[in-house]
Write the structure tokens for this entry.
Amino acid sequence: MTKSRDLANAATALNAVTATELGFVDGVTSAIQTQLDAKLATATAATTYVANSLADAKGDLLTATADNTPARLAVGNNGETLVADSSTSTGLRYQGNYTAGKNAIINGGMDIWQRGTSFTTNGYSADRWYRNSNGANRTYSRQTTSDTTNLPFIQYCMRVARNSGNTTTDSLEFVTSLETANSLPYAGKTVTLSFYARAGANFSAASNRLGVYLISGTGTDQGWISPGYTGTAYPINNQTATLTTTWQRFTFTGTVATTATELSSFFFYEPLGTAGAADYYEITGVQLELGSVATAFTRAGGTIQGELAACQRYYQKSYNIDVAPQTNTTGVGLVALISSANSVVATSARVGYVFLKTTMRTTPTVTIYSYTSSTAGVVSNGAGTDLAANSGLVEYQGSNGFVIYNFSGGNITPSNGTFVAHYVASAEL
Amino acid sequence: MKYTYEEIATSLGNGFILRSDGACIPKDTANSDYQRYLNPEAEQSTPNLSE
């Protein structure tokens, strides 16, 4: 009776079930509920799903420390950006947003060459970069990188070369110094110096070594080459970049002392034997930034115009950007000084005032050059004729401009109502 | 490069330093050329890190 009643109830229950649905139990070999329970038990295991407890706060990220090993990355501070960093457990790290002005090295991309494009004596070469070498027959020059594969589209580089056949083995050094205002943000911080470099086919340094320093000092606005630093320390101390003939990026990390007030980036190579035809290295994309990871290279000035203005804070000239100072008979850029009523200017009298293109770091040293022969300390008349010695000296210079004086000891006479001259102004470290 | 220097007086102000290459150096202690004029020994003390 009971069985009959059960069958009757089952028939009622199955009334809404189709034959297709009944077919879904085909192949079942054990209790379905038992199988479902076992499956759920497996699915809740830590090896299958990430536990909710891994997230602790708003903004936390789910990342990993290894294969099948999830981990939490706590949200960064407001404004910070997430960067890849293989030295951390998760391969990720938040850091301050240093995109604007993150690179402390002005002209790290070797874009600006106001003084010329080839240098064989010590002094500033590419803007902000100082050539230093005790030996002769070394040429520091601008070159095109000619590589859009291994470089992030950087147009120019500095080539530091020992001339072919030269046997002098004194080191070839290349340095840029930061003024104190630009160094202080790095005091007490971890910093990373990065750059792109490659060797010429005859690069003669032992083990293809390019030496790398980051130097700090405790003075104010000193150049490291001259007069030199006080309180010298080495956040990056004599590291080695092993060059090949292909562009590579090198990165070095160090910690700047809390007392540091000035920084210099310094590179050198020590040649061996007799120089071949391509005994050089090339370098560009130099970047010094906060943190332990080298991020993509950017100009300190942001744009090419910004970089030029940053360079002109230290050095500027009247000549066109692509004309080296003391290029004779260069009309473009001449400073024309109007002489009222075409009158002569007596000795110890002012010839005129010149406004500088950008405000300079401090009161600059100024040199006046004549039009025809590029004689220092001389102005020319409006017809281009160079006038007397010391007719173009400079006084009352400030960070925004200067006065040209006639100290020739006699009168100077304009032509076409003007005197003309070129100038260079330097407020370098 | 070894330079020689000459102090030039002007009608106003403190005058300036005329360097032998024709450069006019202001008497401003923040100017590195003036620092080298005041301390010529430092100009010749180029450090050498490469050794």
About this structure: Chain B touches chain A through 34 residues (CB under 8 Å). The two ends of chain B are 23 Å apart (CA to CA). Residues 32-38 of chain B form the longest helix (7 residues). The CA atoms of residues 22 and 48 of chain B lie 29 Å apart.
